[in-house]
Amino acid sequence: MRFAVRIPTLADVIPWLLLTFLVLFPKGGVKFAGIPLTWGYLFLGLIFIPLALLRLVRLPMRGSPLTIAVFASLLPFQFLFLFSIWLNGDDGPAVPVALLTSFIFLPAIFLGVFPAYLHLINYERFRRQFCFCILAAALWGIFLFFYHPLMGHYIEIPYLTVNIADYGLLETTKHIDRGGYLKLISTYNNGNLYGVATLILFPLYRLLEPKAWKRNVVRIALVLTLSRTVWFGLIIEQFLSLIVQLPTILGSFPRIRPGRSLPQIIAIGATVCLVLVGLLFNGNGLGFLFNGGLGGREGEIPAFSQQTLVPTVPVGPIAELVYASVLASYGIIGLLAFLLIFFMPVILLIFNPWLAQTPSRRAAVKGLILYSIVASIDGAILLIPVLVFYFFCYMVLLHGLPGESTANRPAAPHLDAENGFARSVLT
C-alpha cells in the first residue's frame, strides 16, 4: 500500500511561520540597544525583499486605485515624521526605527507585496492556523492568569514566549499588578497590548471560528486582561454589530422588531456581565472603572490645550493616549495627517460601499474601526504586533482573506498576469 506524502510549499510554510511568530509568539526574540528584534518581524524583513523584487520585476508600478489611495493617505504623516526627525531630532534610535517599521515597512509589505500572493494560500489551512494561534494564545494567557497567584511566578520560555532581555522581569516592568491578580498577558507580556492587539483580529476570529466555546474562551481572556480599554473595546465591538442592524429596527418603527439584532443585544448584556465578573479580580473594585487619573495617563491630556500647528519638539514614542500624544509631538497638522490614516477605511467605504459586501471584509473593517476608537484611550500603537494586525486587516478589507475567492475583489485587471507568475515561483 502506497502513501502519498505531500511536500509543503512556500505558500504553506510562509503563512504558518508568520502566524506562529506574529500571533502566537509575538515577543520571542532579542534586543539590540534596547530595540526589540522579534522572530516574526525578522522573518517579515527576510521575505520582504525577494517577494517585493518578484512583484516589481514582473509588474512594475501597477496597483489597484484603492491601494494607491491608501498609500496616498499614508504619505502626509510619513513625510511629517521624517521631516520632524530631520528638523527637531529624536529621543533615541528606537523611536525612528519604530516609526519607520510601523508606518513605512508594514504598509509596504501588507498592502503592496502580500496581495499578489494571497491566492496561492490554501484558505481552509490558513483559517485553521489563524484560529488555532488566537485560541492557543488565549488559553496560555488564562492558564498563566491563575497559575501566577498559586505559584508566585510566571512560566517564561526565553526567546519564545518572552524576549530574552525581558526574561524574569515581567512582574516588575510591565505594570500588570491589579492587587492580588496580575493582568492576563499571554505571550504578549503586557495585558493592554494583548487585549488591544487581539481586539483588532477578534471580529475576524468570530467569523472564522465555528465553535462557540472557542470564541468565548478568547472573550474571557480579553476580560481577564483587567484593562478598562479592552473592556470598553469589547462592548464597542458588540455595539458595532448592533449598528449594522439599526436600519432594520428603524424600518419597523414605531413597532419594535429586534429580529436579527436580538443576538447582538444579548451579547452586549453578556459582555457587560463578564466585565463585572472581571472586577472581582481587581483590587480596586468599581473605583477602578471611574479612576479620574486614567490609569496614570492624565499627564497626556494637556496636549489638547497646549497644541502647536507644526512639530516643534524632538520626536518621541507615541504614548498610550495615541491622539493626544501625536498632537503633542506633531502639532495640529500632524494630528490631521495621522487621523487620515485611521479614518481612511471609513472614507473608502463611504465612496465604495461594495468593499464590505463579503463577511470577511466587513469583519476586517470592524476591527480597523474598533482600533481607531480604543486608540483614543490606549492604542499601544508602536508596540509589536499591533500595527501588523492593523495592516493585515487593511489587506483583508482591500483583497479578502488569503486563499479566499477573488470573484468580489476590487477591480484589478493586472492580477491575472501577476497571479500566473507568482504561482510559478511559490508553488
Automatic annotation (TrEMBL):
<feature type="transmembrane region" description="Helical">
    <location>
        <begin position="93"/>
        <end position="118"/>
    </location>
</feature>
<feature type="transmembrane region" description="Helical">
    <location>
        <begin position="191"/>
        <end position="208"/>
    </location>
</feature>
<feature type="transmembrane region" description="Helical">
    <location>
        <begin position="130"/>
        <end position="147"/>
    </location>
</feature>
<protein>
    <submittedName>
        <fullName>Uncharacterized protein</fullName>
    </submittedName>
</protein>
<feature type="transmembrane region" description="Helical">
    <location>
        <begin position="262"/>
        <end position="281"/>
    </location>
</feature>
<feature type="transmembrane region" description="Helical">
    <location>
        <begin position="66"/>
        <end position="87"/>
    </location>
</feature>
<feature type="transmembrane region" description="Helical">
    <location>
        <begin position="330"/>
        <end position="356"/>
    </location>
</feature>
<keyword id="KW-1133">Transmembrane helix</keyword>
<feature type="transmembrane region" description="Helical">
    <location>
        <begin position="7"/>
        <end position="26"/>
    </location>
</feature>
<keyword id="KW-0812">Transmembrane</keyword>
<feature type="transmembrane region" description="Helical">
    <location>
        <begin position="368"/>
        <end position="392"/>
    </location>
</feature>
<feature type="transmembrane region" description="Helical">
    <location>
        <begin position="32"/>
        <end position="54"/>
    </location>
</feature>
<feature type="transmembrane region" description="Helical">
    <location>
        <begin position="228"/>
        <end position="250"/>
    </location>
</feature>
<keyword id="KW-0472">Membrane</keyword>
